[in-house]
Design a protein that fits this description.
It contains 19 helices and 12 strands. By secondary structure, it is an alpha/beta fold. The protein starts with 16 loop residues before the first helix and ends with a helix. The mean pLDDT is 89.
């Protein structure tokens, strides 16, 4: 008897967006669990307000405010989210006015707490682990031990930076250190911008909220889940990370695709002159750590010889990368975590390229020019999008898309300091 000796594994240790959505059963349940990204993708006509709130809390401030403005009646929960969005946009007087409209018992207490926060002239945040942009100068605010972001004073305490706000060492009990500070200097929250830094002594005894901006969970979660569990809240970059971390570490997680400590001002979008590359794939695509990428690349072979696919494995200088994008029709987003907020999506959209994203993730909510592909039919979906692009179908028309991308990204063209302030407000 002949035996088939081909090795053809077909498995993934990731939960798919569809699997996660099925688990929650409804957008309302996903919202209550903090997976605002999943809830924001809901198109349940019966609860457009919930979608608007989820958009705001997943980082899509403009879209969420616009949706709330279309509602005839907004609940207390909706007004809380609306007030938060206005605060993020520095429209504090309007945020107060919205909070004053909340009268229902379920959200009145939260509104009162939020109102008190808005009245504060100084909110203190201790940052125990830094996450620096790749490009930082010695004068960059990201390296300063103390910096003021609006009403928020951020202090590095026990971080890996050479200069911190206090002469505190990680082996010293942090709870005692905070307790011995003058009342005016004690933190409102302790915030770690990376799970890669050491936990201070007695961290579990610190009695102020402890928040983690989490990333690369697939590397660190399985090595030190106990450290993750020491936090009260984690901010995750996508639904998959949220789903895994909230269930393994047992802490409340919030999914947000936009806010990042690495945020730098988005470039302004402009129309390209010509498109002679059908699909561009860049980055580390042929290593064992990113198994999703070589699988994706293999599927693209079915596009030959009809389309030009350019593959660049490894690093590209920024100017060369941006120039390639201006000549490219589509850039695919392929991550270990589907929908993770790689800067590739913003680079592509602001240089006149369209995005191909995993179906079930949030990109179509962010801006026009984003099109889904299914894992079961990658090449067929890419071919369909290329055909529509070449025919200049309405949603593929760059002359229409680029101005709207610019309008939606205006808030992200402000300074890195403003972006970081929004993360701290979140």
């Amino acid at each position: 008897m002949e035996m088939d000796r081909r090795i053809a594994p077909d498995f993934s240790f990731r939960f798919s967006p569809k699997c996660i959505s099925t688990y929650y059963k409804s957008a309302a349940r996903a919202f209550d669990c903090g997976d605002f990204v999943i809830a924001a993708q809901s198109n349940e006509a019966a609860d457009r307000e919930l979608k608007a709130c989820a958009q705001i809390l997943s980082g899509l401030i403009d879209q969420g405010l616009s949706e709330l403005a279309r509602q005839e009646r907004v609940s207390g929960r909706g007004k809380l989210c609306q007030a938060y969005a206005l605060w993020v946009l520095d429209r504090v007087a309007e945020a107060h006015a919205v909070l004053d409209e909340i009268v229902d018992r379920e959200t009145a207490d939260a509104a009162a707490i939020f109102r008190g926060l808005l009245n504060r002239e100084e909110i203190t945040v201790f940052v125990t682990g830094a996450m620096l942009p790749v490009r930082t100068e010695t004068t960059d605010t990201a390296r300063q031990p103390v910096f003021r972001y609006g009403s928020i004073t951020m202090k590095y305490v026990g971080s890996q930076l050479p200069d911190n706000a206090y002469d505190y060492r990680l082996h010293e009990p942090m709870d005692e250190f905070i307790r011995d500070l003058p009342a005016s200097e004690r933190p409102d929250i302790v915030f770690a911008l990376s799970p890669q830094w050491l936990i201070p002594a007695n961290f579990e005894q610190v009695d102020v909220p402890k928040v983690l901006w989490s990333h690369d969970e697939d590397v660190f979660l399985y090595r030190n889940v106990e450290n993750f569990a020491l936090y009260d809240v984690a901010i995750c970059a996508c639904s998959q990370a949220h789903f895994e971390l909230s269930r393994s570490a047992g802490i409340f997680c919030a999914s947000n695709v936009i806010f990042s400590p690495l945020a730098t001002p988005f470039p302004e979008a402009s129309l390209p002159e010509r498109k002679d590359i059908d699909l561009l794939f860049t980055g580390s695509g042929l290593d064992e750590f990113h198994s999703e990428k070589p699988r994706f690349i293999y599927q693209l072979t079915e596009l030959e010889p009809d389309y030009k696919v350019k593959l660049v494995n490894g690093h590209l200088p920024e100017r060369q990368y941006f120039d390639l994008l201006r000549h490219t029709k589509f850039l695919p987003i392929v991550n270990r975590y589907a929908g993770a907020p790689s800067p590739r999506w913003r680079d592509a959209l602001t240089h006149g390229a369209c995005i191909l994203y995993p179906e079930g993730t949030l990109y179509d909510e962010i801006a026009p020019g984003c099109f889904p592909i299914r894992e079961s039919s990658i090449s067929a979906d890419v071919r369909r999008h290329l055909e529509s692009f070449d025919k200049i179908a309405p949603s593929y028309d760059l002359k229409e898309n680029v101005p709207e991308v610019n309008r939606r990204f205006a808030i992200h063209r402000e300074s890195r300091e403003k972006s970081f302030e929004r993360l701290l407000k979140y």
